Amino acid sequence: MPYTGCMQRMSQLFTRTLKEVSADEVAANARLLVRGGFVHKVMAGVYAYLPLGLRVLKKIEGIIREEMNALGAQELLLTALQDPAPWKKTGRWSDEAIDIWFKTQSGDVVVGLANTHEEPLTRMLTHHIASYKDLPFSAYQFQTKFRNEPRAKSGLLRAREFMMKDLYSFSRTAQEHEAFYEKAKDAYRTIFDRVGIGESTYITYASGGTFSAFSHEFQTVCEAGEDIIYIEEERRVAVNKEVASDDVLRELGLKRENLREAKAIEVGNIFSLGTRFSEPLELLYADEKGDKRPVIMGSYGIGPGRVIGTAVELRHDERGIRWPAAIAPYDAHVIMLDSKEREAEDLIARLEQEGIDALYDDRLEKQAGEKFADADLIGIPWRIVVSKRTVEKGMVEIKQRISKDSSLIEVQNVKIKMQNDNIKF
Amino acid sequence: MPYTGCMQRMSQLFTRTLKEVSADEVAANARLLVRGGFVHKVMAGVYAYLPLGLRVLKKIEGIIREEMNALGAQELLLTALQDPAPWKKTGRWSDEAIDIWFKTQSGDVVVGLANTHEEPLTRMLTHHIASYKDLPFSAYQFQTKFRNEPRAKSGLLRAREFMMKDLYSFSRTAQEHEAFYEKAKDAYRTIFDRVGIGESTYITYASGGTFSAFSHEFQTVCEAGEDIIYIEEERRVAVNKEVASDDVLRELGLKRENLREAKAIEVGNIFSLGTRFSEPLELLYADEKGDKRPVIMGSYGIGPGRVIGTAVELRHDERGIRWPAAIAPYDAHVIMLDSKEREAEDLIARLEQEGIDALYDDRLEKQAGEKFADADLIGIPWRIVVSKRTVEKGMVEIKQRISKDSSLIEVQNVKIKMQNDNIKF
Asked: Using an 8 Å Cβ cutoff, are A200 and A221 in contact?
């Protein structure tokens, strides 16, 4: 059965675009996302997702989930409330060790709100993993993280409550871990390509902790970024300023004179954890000889909300957002001008039958100028106008958000045009 | 393109069934769900979802989402962290007013973890709703709630952290509200029918608050329930003991001698809120004459985790769970006996091609008895055995979880048999 598109009438959508944003909202991503009706700011660093924003979030989540499943990772869902016990064993319970804990009282005990999930997952797995036959495997979740960030002025780039996709790998040997780590790295590249920020995103050597020389960050070059990286354009790698000593550059085969400094946003990171968590929490497996060994772990994070903020920082102009096609809330923004005549409604119904997901501006009381301005602000890649003039010809007027050129085409050609004329930002 | 099933090999699944559950886990639902590898208990009232449990949760979520969208409700996602301001305005911030708050420190201020979302949603909508033209509408979310329950010994029936579907309606008049309320009531009936607990679930008159005589609870009759209801079987309605005075029974046209007392689990509730929240939070709309009026609200909740717990309480025997088909983690539990011969693997690949989602017990090291016991514990509605004996005939042996009778059939008839022989518990 052919897919029938979803057509959301703006007269029914309960959100509206806003002219004003509170002055304390300084980040471009947050200002545009609030004005467009994608998110609502509850407090500093705490954002609710409105219907348009939730559609973007779910598209990103869908892309990430596909790539996680392709890795063979199994989805689960851990909890926000944290028993202190495993965190005490790894030394990460105190506010000195982790300075962004939110804690709360549950009966007589103080419990935490998870800022990450190595401890509870590692402890839980002691109930399920016993033998080398149970390994290797990987597990991931989309789960809300809480981080009591002292500064939260960057909109969706640094939130106090945010959804995170976190993947964890469990291997028997360093070699087995490395093989998965490389596959996860490739999956991350694919994800950033698919969501539309791959061209600006560099795999970046960063500090590695105790168990490996480096971790890898995925850094998207952007003026709003809080990190400084040094980019080697030819190899498409970078080094985080924090670790970019001469010794490190030599080790990586990079020459300082070939490096370009840039501000960047960390959109993902992958870590080799070694036995940092499995040893204190006793996640052990019996090898072929029956000897108990600690499991070798890795962790791999992406914040879908941060990806949204980054995409908006990269892709906007003075009029509004310019969504990458893969994560836009809808494929097309359909505008009805003049009047809701029968023929015009017929044309729009046919767009739906063609399988186009559209936000449909059917509002009678709005002027054309306001409708065009809203379309530019909301930033859906294609704009389709149906007016008396186009209806007379049995056609629609189609235009990309990023282009000034529009063309009149027949409804049955819309989908093909949208597929063939790839959006290039 | 025909749907190809998803085949999860148990040799790859990282969870295992457990022989033991800690003695402090007293509720049948939690004991079975933990033993089957559906959930993991982190603390009292705090459960993580493992891959099998997450599949059940997502199936329930999918059914609810379809029915919410059919109502025309728009999905959004509010936050856990709560600014105290709107809660102070409605008088629900203090621990005396709401005795199950979790609160935490964010910088200098105390913030809450949401136990419900009337306040933040009502406040947020003051940015989007201004005129009678913006109404009516409804919005819903699947969002984690936090309730610091003093007793949390009922497994998934009363959790401290749990996902909730909460729907809110916004109307101009009492009449408009009532019309939506009745539609929502019907949607709830449909949901409980679809998830497989409809037959035991009664719409129940309960206390209504200030703005309506009654609210409606959906109560599932079950020995594990904490509520007492009086059921009028013929009309399929019930009254919560809390409000079942003689006066109330007379008002509802019920006769005490026709009522049967039963323990029940509240799996959903719907409330008329009137202007309880819109007045203090100033969610007003201008009517046709330009007069400002408070919006009339309703709220409608279902806890998918509680639905899971209830389904398990209702549908289990001494050997394990008996999932309703619509929310089972997989359609079939495929067991390979004897050996992984080429012909057997071919038969199983053909099940996958037939579009059957299956948990596939391919474990070589396990004995037949253990495999059968695991299948009974996990409780998937259909069990399909492939053995030397069946392979010789080019067939599989199929049996319902609830039945003792098995039959040999050809692979191409499996799907039809599963569709036609409806599971009756």
From this structure: yes
How far is residue B55's CA from residue B120's CA, in Å, rounded to a whole number?
A: 30
- To 5 degrees, how large is the angle CA A272–CA A273–CA A279? 150
CA A155 to chain B, closest CA, distance in angstroms equals 15
Reported ipTM: 0.96
Residues written for chain B: 425
Residues of A in contact with B77 (CB under 8 A): 48-49, 54, 57
Closest residue, chain A, to B74 (C-alpha) = A51
Mean pLDDT to the nearest integer, A229-233: 97
Contact between A312 and A29 under an 8 Å Cβ cutoff? The reply is yes
Three-state SS at A97: coil
Give backbone dihedrals phi and psi of A384, rounded to 5 degrees, phi first.
-120, 120
Burial A191-218 (b: 16+ CB within 10 A, else e): bbebbbbeebbbbbbbeeeebbebbbbb
Question: Any idea which residue has 């998934």 for tokens?
Answer: B156
Instruction: Give Rg (Cα) of chain A.
Output: 24
* Phi then psi dihedrals of residue B383, to 5 deg: -115, 130
Segment B219-262, tens digit of pLDDT: 999 999 999 999 999 999 999 999 999 999 999 999 999 999 99
Pick among B81, B110, B156 to test the A interface (most A CBs inside 10 A) = B81
Averaged pLDDT for residues A352-367: 93
* Two structure tokens written together for A310: 């980054």
Other C-beta atoms lying within 10 Å of the C-beta of residue B59: 21
Q: Does residue B199 carry a pLDDT above 50?
A: yes
Q: Does domain A38-317 have CATH number 3.30.930.10?
A: yes
Q: Give the tens place of pLDDT for each residue, A91-112.
A: 999 999 999 999 999 888 999 9
The gap from C-alpha A167 to its chain's centroid, in whole angstroms, comes to 14
Q: A15 vs chain B: nearest CA distance in angstroms?
A: 5
Question: What's the pLDDT tens digit per position in A4-44?
Answer: 889 999 999 999 999 989 888 999 999 999 999 999 999 99
- Determine the topology of domain A7-12+330-420 in CATH: Rossmann fold (3.40.50)
Alpha helix ranges (H) inside A319-392: 342-353, 368-378, 388-392
End-to-end C-alpha distance for chain A, whole angstroms: 34
Both tokens of B2, joined, read 């025909």
Residues on chain A touching B144 (C-beta within 8 angstroms): 80, 144
Q: Strands B284-286, B292-294: parallel, antiparallel or unpaired by DSSP? A: antiparallel
Domain regions of chain A by residue span:
7-12+330-420, 38-317
Gyration radius of chain B over CA positions: 24
Q: φ and ψ at A358, to 5 degrees?
A: -140, 145
Which residues in chain A are closer than 8 Å to B137, comparing Cβ atoms?
12, 14
Q: Which amino acid is at A133?
A: K
Q: What is the pLDDT of residues B395-413, one digit of tens each?
A: 999 999 999 999 999 999 9
Beta strands in A114-235 (DSSP E): 137-146, 161-171, 201-207, 214-221, 227-232
φ/ψ of B367, rounded to 5, equals -80, 160
Residue A174 has a CB neighbour count (10 Å cut-off) of: 14
List C-alpha distances in Å: B300 to B73, B229, B360, B404: 12, 20, 38, 41
User: Which run of H or of E encompasses A310?
Assistant: helix A304-314
- CB-based contact B250:B244 (threshold 8 Å): no
Question: What is the distance between the alpha carbons of residues A213 and A205, in angstroms, rounded to a whole number?
Answer: 9
Grade residue B425 by pLDDT with cuts at 50, 70 and 90: very low
